[in-house]
Amino acid sequence: MNREISRVDISFIGDNNMYITQETVSKLLIQNPQRSQKEFKEIIDLNELERALNSNPMIKTADVYVTVDGVLKADVVQKKPIARVRTNASYYIDDQGSYMPLSSNYSARVPLVTGSIDKNNLSNVFEVARKIQNDEFLKKHVFEIRQDKKNHIYLRLRQYDFIVEIGKPTSLDKKINNLKAFYKKAYKENRLNSYSNINLRFESQVVCTKV
User: Fold this and answer.
1) CA end-to-end distance (rounded Å), the chain
2) What distances in angstroms separate CA 68 from CA 2, 4, 71, 73, one per listed residue?
3) What sign for the dihedral angle of Cα 141, 139, 167, 85?
4) pLDDT tens per residue, range 144-191
5) What is the pLDDT of residues 62-75, one digit of tens each?
6) Dihedral in degrees, nearest 10, Cα atoms 132, 101, 103, 129
7) Which long-range CB contacts under 8 A does 172-178 form with residues at least 24 apart?
8) What number of other Cβ atoms are within 10 A of residue 205's Cβ?
9) CA 20, CA 107: separation in Å to the nearest integer?
10) CA 91 to the chain's CA centroid
11) Long-range contacts of 128-132 (CB under 8 A, 24+ apart)
12) How many CA atoms lie within 13 A of 157 on its CB side?
């Protein structure tokens, strides 16, 4: 496409949290930042520009096109982090279960992930993080997800010191319902500070260890 570009217009779709800046996206679109937009008369490969944007680890999808009046437009959907890994490396896990780097522009308030984490195998912690993201009770209370070397999952809740043992992330709905029922009853009876461990590994019961 051989057309003079009058300007570049970048729109972020959806989440208002800015993990990537318009300046960064603009530089990906116009590889030579010293060139003025009016001089940008080269043949434009829109597919190549889209690939450049989609290869950025902050971007989920991008749609690039030129309007009839010569505006180069990019509609960008950013990745959405749902957990933050904090081990020897720090990064986010996004809502698709993929790697997402930390941003110097914005910090997401999401649960921490600690323990034995393989960047190339995030399925267990992603499944738990996604459950937390979509459940108001968990989203309010859980601040840490820990995975041990056997891929067993443990949770920590705000305000309380006890550990919640999930075990393998199977039958999560059943286990979470057991946790909610236990929490509601123990909170009503003012006993939440009496426990050091809440074991949910057995689907039919909650096994508690007192302090």
Assistant:
1) 71
2) 13, 11, 7, 11
3) negative
4) 999 999 999 999 999 899 999 999 998 999 999 999 999 999 999 999
5) 999 988 888 889 99
6) 0
7) 172/127, 172/128, 172/131, 174/203, 175/200, 175/201, 175/203, 176/131, 176/135, 176/137, 176/138, 178/203, 178/205, 178/206
8) 11
9) 11
10) 9
11) 128/153, 128/155, 128/166, 128/169, 128/172, 129/82, 129/83, 129/93, 130/82, 130/95, 130/97, 131/172, 131/176, 132/82, 132/83
12) 21
Are 111 and 144 a contacting pair, CB within 8 Å?
yes
Strand order in the sheet with 59-66: 7-12, 71-78, 59-66
**pLDDT, tens digit, 9 for 90 and up, residues 17-56:** 789 999 899 888 876 444 444 445 445 688 888 999 999 9
Q: Is 130 in contact with 82 (CB distance < 8 Å)?
A: yes
Share of the chain above pLDDT 70, in %: 91
Over 99-163, what HEC string results? EECCCCCCCCCCCEEEECCECCECHHHHHHHHHHHCCHHHHHHEEEEEECCCCCEEEEECCCCCE
The amino acid occupying position 130 is R
- Whether the CB-CB separation of 115 and 153 falls below 8 Å is answered with no
